[in-house]
Design goal:
207 residues; alpha/beta; 6 helices; binds 5-O-phosphono-beta-D-ribofuranosylamine
Length: 207
């Protein structure tokens, strides 16, 4: 059994999609969802709809120094991941950079990590926040979604899967984001299924 932890900060549509996908898979289990925001609706939703899944609220500690704060936060997260004997981490709208503590704990011998992220753009275009908004404002005819291994950079790790979608003439920002989200759910589900079938993940291309 491969044990996956999902990390989320906000609305959590990707987290729910992964929980639903895992129900159908024989060799992958998601025993815990790590949430760093008290306000995330996921806390209540998972407790009421997924009784077999634990939620771990691990808020960011109140320290000024960013490096020290990240280290303390990730050590707390790591304690939870150890309890659940987690093999892989899937970031699903987790709005934080991952630091050396988690990267080291999930490092593969080949240098990539067993931490995966989904990003709403055709990376390397538009790393960071608001990928869809940026593509929409720039009038890009094609946008997309990238799933990649997490490394020390901001959305810079090797790509596992990248899928594009067209911007339609009649698109508003809302319909454009909606189409992107549909792509996100489909391909994150496919990557979790790949992990189930192959027992590991590999990069589609190096960047
Ligand atoms: C998604 O667009 C994801 O690609 C990005 O953050 C957003 C999270 O949405 N990393 P949700 O919380 O999963 O609905």
């Amino acid at each position: 059994m491969i044990r996956v932890a999902v990390f989320a900060s906000g609305a959590g549509s990707n987290a729910i999609n992964l929980l639903e996908t895992a129900k159908r898979l024989g060799d992958v289990r998601i025993p815990v969802v790590i949430i760093d925001q008290q306000t995330s609706p996921l806390l209540e939703r998972i407790r009421s709809e997924y009784p077999d899944v634990e939620t771990a609220l691990v808020p960011i500690p109140p320290m000024k120094d960013v490096k020290a704060r990240r280290e303390v936060h990730e050590t707390e997260i790591l304690d939870v991941l150890k309890i659940f004997q987690i093999d892989w981490c899937f970031l699903a709208g987790y709005m934080r950079m991952v630091g050396p503590t988690l990267l080291k704990a999930f490092q593969e011998p080949n240098g990539t990590s067993r931490i995966v992220n989904i990003h709403p753009s055709l990376l390397p275009k538009y790393p960071g926040l608001d990928g869809y908004e940026q593509a929409f404002r720039a009038d890009d005819a094609v946008s997309g979604v990238t799933i990649h291994f997490v490394d020390a950079g901001m959305d810079t790790g090797p790509v596992i899967k990248q899928v594009s979608f067209k911007r339609e003439k009649k698109d508003t920002l809302e319909t454009f984001i909606e189409r992107g989200k549909t792509v996100e759910w489909k391909i994150y589900s496919e990557v979790l299924t790949l992990l189930n079938d192959q027992r590991t993940l590999s990069a589609e291309k190096k960047r």
